[in-house]
Design goal:
The chain has 5 helices and 2 strands; from the N terminus they run αββαααα. By secondary structure, it is mainly α. Helix 4 (96-118) runs antiparallel to helix 5. It is flat.
């Protein structure tokens, strides 16, 4: 036997091992990807459908349902329409204790952001904290206004 005939099976085996290694590397993604796509489809579709339905006016008609796109009108009716006191409650004049509580919470939130900035803030972290500050401040203001004299929460 010559040297060339012995080298061929070794090269072929190395190529086969390389292909097998590559297939093994991609196998986990190949088996997991369909499951991930199905889960995403089942979670994203209801979200998009709910968003669309929230932007439409629904009427039940003979033989089906009629959807009319109204944009943000549904949200405007909810916030300032005839039933807004059922959604947000009735706001009253805040007492001194309520104002002090609101100012204390606002000061604590500003201190929280200032401490984060001094420690070396990232843009993403700062934006997230500012969004949290606005949300928490809004909830505290709403609580102070509805719990004050003349106010009534939506749960009342």
């Amino acid at each position: 036997m010559s040297e060339g005939t012995i080298a061929r099976p070794v090269v072929a085996r190395r190529r086969l091992n390389a292909v097998g290694t590559r297939l093994d590397r991609y196998a986990s993604g190949t088996f997991i990807l369909p499951a991930v796509l199905i889960i995403l489809a089942f979670s994203i579709f209801p979200l998009v459908a709910s968003l669309y339905v929230s932007l439409t006016r629904i009427r039940f008609v003979q033989g089906g349902v009629d959807f009319t796109f109204v944009g943000l009108d549904n949200y405007a009716k909810l916030l300032v329409g005839i039933d807004h006191d059922h959604f947000l409650g009735v706001l009253g004049n805040p007492s001194v204790v309520g104002l002090a509580a609101g100012v204390a919470v606002a000061a604590a939130l500003v201190w929280w952001i200032a401490r984060y900035v001094r420690a070396g803030a990232t843009v993403f972290g700062l934006v997230g904290r500012i969004v949290a500050l606005v949300g928490i401040s809004s909830l505290v203001w709403l609580a102070v206004e509805t719990l004050s004299s003349g106010g009534r929460g939506r749960w009342s």
